[in-house]
Amino acid sequence: MKRIHPDIRLLVLLILGGFGITFLVCPHCTNSLYQYTMASLYSVSVWVFLWFGNDKMAHILNNKISWVTSPVKRLFWGLLSTVVYTLGIMYILKSVFNAITDFDIQFNTEILTITLVITFGISIFMHGRMFLLNWRQAALDAETLRKESAMARYDALKSQINPHFLFNSLNALTNLVYEDQDKAARFIKQLSEVYRYVLDTREKELVLLVEELRFVKAYLFLQQIRFGDNLNIELEVEDENGQVAPLALQLLLENAIKHNVISKEQPLNIRLYRDGDYIVVENSLQPKTLAVPATPGLGLENIRRRYSFLTSREVVIHQTADRFAVRIPVISVEA
């Protein structure tokens, strides 16, 4: 059996309610079928416009003012808009009915009071429903963000302690011990800084940019020891204010190193710089030729999902024939 649309059921209830309210508010109208019908049609029109109009306004206000961040402001404008809309729609419908029919609709204190009381009931229901839906969505978003951040931190930690990373780091360290003991000691210190930072940020959603850059410098030091002059790094961030998602910059740098050819003939150039409210990681594009193509974009999609819960600004990806750049938002400490 086909179900009746909820709006149709609601419309039927409003029509029945309009006729019932007319009987309660205007008992003498029942003395004339015409008078009772016209008064009821006016009452039905008022309640239909009030219900659907307040519902629409609740959605509009919900998009303009958040229940989560500004509940008092949202409640104030919700109640004010309800009063203004209610009085306005009653006056407009009264003017229309008086103009197209010979039935004279008159307002009195009792009618206005009953109408406003019922309308406030409708409004409280609408705004309360919106508040609960927004609160529920905020809770779901927060839980999703925690899961996304946990997955990202796990992936970053896993990438740091995988056998290849350890093997490459220890192999580079072995050569350094014989060639330059001072640099070998610094290498060990930077390697410990990398692991300590990954472990310290595993429960955080945001970190200070200055801390992330300190970690990035340690990570890049290890990579430059491994690749030597075949890896050219330009780090140009003068303004270190703000916050970023932890390990996001490292993941972008790791992707550039992992997916591009790095050799004496084709050195990889990476530039990390700040452009306004964004940090940009840009590298020369010289992709590896693999027998089995790697699955692309998983790391970038991970960063995009994390930032979608942190800010309304998007992660921007730009690619040309010879350059690949990713811009991630810097979030102010106040925000």
The tally of strands reads: 7
What percent of residues are in strands? Answer: 5-15%
Structural class: alpha+beta
Named at the architecture level, the CATH assignment of the largest domain is: 2-Layer Sandwich
CATH topology descriptor of the largest domain? Heat Shock Protein 90
Low-confidence stretches: 291-296
Shape: rod-shaped
Mean pLDDT: 77
Largest sheet geometry: 5 strands, mixed
- Major sheet: arrangement of strands: 2-4-5-7-6
Amount of helix: 55-70%
Distance from N terminus to C terminus (CA atoms, Å) equals 52 Å
What's the CATH class label of the largest domain? Answer: Alpha Beta
Give me the number of helical elements: 9
Please give the radius of gyration in angstroms.
32 Å
Q: What order do the helices and strands follow?
A: HHHHHHEHEEHEEHEE
Count of separate structural domains: 2
Explain the overall architecture:
64% of the residues lie in helices and 11% in strands. With 335 residues, the protein is of the alpha+beta class. The protein folds into two domains: 135 residues; 168 residues, 2-Layer Sandwich (Heat Shock Protein 90). Strands 2-4-5-7-6 form a five-stranded mixed sheet, with helices on one face. A hairpin with a 2-residue loop joins strand 4 and strand 5. The radius of gyration is 32 Å and the shape is rod-shaped. About 2% of the residues have low confidence.
